[in-house]
Specification:
The chain is an alpha/beta fold. The protein has helices at 13-25, 59-75, 97-108, 156-161, 173-176, 180-192, 205-214, 231-237, 266-276, 286-290, 295-306, 320-330, 332-352, 363-372, 413-419; strands at 6-10, 30-34, 47-51, 80-84, 113-116, 124-127, 130-133, 136-137, 168-171, 197-200, 220-223, 256-261, 281-283, 312-315, 355-361, 377-385, 388-393, 400-404.
Length: 422
């Protein structure tokens, strides 16, 4: 089995891809696996990201899944461990960030860990412990309307403290501005005072690199993918990691292209609308699906007639009012499950008609699609937009996938992705 430098546990699929993308950009040859692996990984891999579907399940189930992932990573020889959650810190009131972080820290004997979801490249910054999305507090952003994990409090110290009995402190931007040594000293002070976690301010990539250097000796790091920016250089300084300039190289994939979107985030809705103005699209309706209408078959038949002339989009993305109406009629979980089942069936249908370059929008949708296609591992390639790379499914019949978190990507992301597919 490959001796890994960094073992990562992500709480959803697109979050895992986001983190893997960051590591590849830092020169770490990275593999993303779907769920806990049942065998070895290629010998040339420096980092493995185990992507779970644990963000919105019960805290008990999330802890169990995460500990199983940790056990595998420890057996593989990982030297450091990373718990990755979303850059918008989205979670339910009961978790699952706090409970999972506590379980991982306890298992590793880690008395202290950072909590830093900042990702300035995607306009997620932390100031005085408060998370901003662009110029807006998290609680005033589109995340306040998220159908599964609405975020109505931007104070991360307060949010995390509600999820853990362990004390949560803050390392402010004034300390972070002074660099990694000052950050490390602040960590030591907080740990000596009995704090288990430190939310760390970060306003730019320079801050993230400094934080990354400061956690070089930590067994557990928690946060968004941004705080992983500095981790590859830590291993490089120890002469454990080479230059790896070709870490993002993927082979050519021959086949048709398509987009499947289940996210209802503000960013994805804008991307869907941008596509619809110029290119063919088909909208699925969860209420019609629940009433027995076979929109999956309709969508596949529709795509069959168009896809050889160019990529198509099949989506269940909708504005907040429409989403709320479906949730009220069907229930939040039932509406989500109906959409995931339909879009994963659509993805399988597209695959059978020759699609081998597939863009998927939405973390839950990505997980459902990857599972439906029977994909177990993804080699991470070059970045399309911040946080979103192309990936290659490790299987006999190559499939390239771009798995996009709902909040990520420019308005023309779908077109850009397909234009730069492997």
């Amino acid at each position: 089995m490959s001796q890994l430098l960094l073992g990562c546990i992500a709480d959803d699929f697109t979050g895992g891809t986001d983190l893997a993308n960051t590591l590849v950009r830092g020169g770490m040859r990275t593999l993303q696996v779907i769920g806990v692996p049942d065998g070895p990984v290629p010998d040339d891999i420096d980092a493995v990201v185990i992507a779970l579907k644990s963000r919105t399940i019960s805290p008990e189930a999330a802890v169990n899944d995460s500990l199983q992932a940790l056990q595998w990573l420890r057996a593989a020889g990982s030297q450091q461990f990373f718990f990755k959650y979303c850059s918008t810190f989205d979670s339910t009131p009961l978790g699952n960030i706090g409970p999972v972080a506590d379980a991982l820290a306890d298992a590793l004997g880690a008395s202290f860990a950072v909590a830093c979801p900042a990702f300035p490249e995607n306009k997620r910054t932390i100031f005085q412990g408060h998370l901003f999305v662009g110029d807006l507090l998290l609680s005033e952003s589109g995340m306040r309307h998220h159908p599964l994990t609405p975020m109505t409090d931007a104070n991360l110290v307060q949010v995390l403290q509600q999820q853990t009995p362990k004390p949560v402190g803050l390392v402010s931007h004034e300390v972070v501005n002074r660099g990694s040594e000052a950050i490390s000293a602040a960590f030591r002070d907080l740990e000596a005072q009995g704090y288990r976690y430190a939310v760390v301010d970060a306003l730019n990539d320079e801050h993230l690199y400094a934080i990354g250097q400061a956690v070089a000796g930590h067994s557990l790091v928690t946060g968004g993918s941004g705080v992983a920016l500095g981790l590859p250089d830590n291993f490089r300084r120890l002469e454990l990691l080479g230059d790896a300039r070709n870490a993002a190289a993927l082979p050519f994939v021959d086949g048709l292209g398509a987009v499947v979107s289940g996210s209802c985030s503000v960013a994805t809705n804008g991307q869907v609308e941008h596509w619809r103005k110029k290119r063919p699209s088909f909208a699925l309706d969860p209420i019609l699906l629940a009433n027995g209408r076979n929109q999956v078959r309709e969508a596949i038949a529709w795509a069959q007639d168009l896809i050889h002339a160019g990529p198509v989009l099949i989506h269940a993305s909708a504005e907040p009012d429409s989403v709320k109406q479906a949730q009220q009629k069907l229930g939040i979980e039932a509406a989500a499950q109906i959409v995931e089942a339909a879009l994963s069936a659509v993805a399988v249908g597209l695959y059978h008609m020759g699609v081998r370059k597939l863009v998927v929008a939405g973390g839950e949708t990505s997980g459902a699609v990857v599972k439906a296609l029977g994909i177990k591992a993804l080699r991470i390639g070059a970045m399309i937009d911040a946080g979103v790379p192309w990936t290659l499914a490790l299987r006999d019949d190559p499939v390239a996938l771009a798995l996009k978190s709902g909040n990520f990507g420019s308005v023309d992301f779908f077109e850009k992705a397909l234009a730069n597919a492997p």
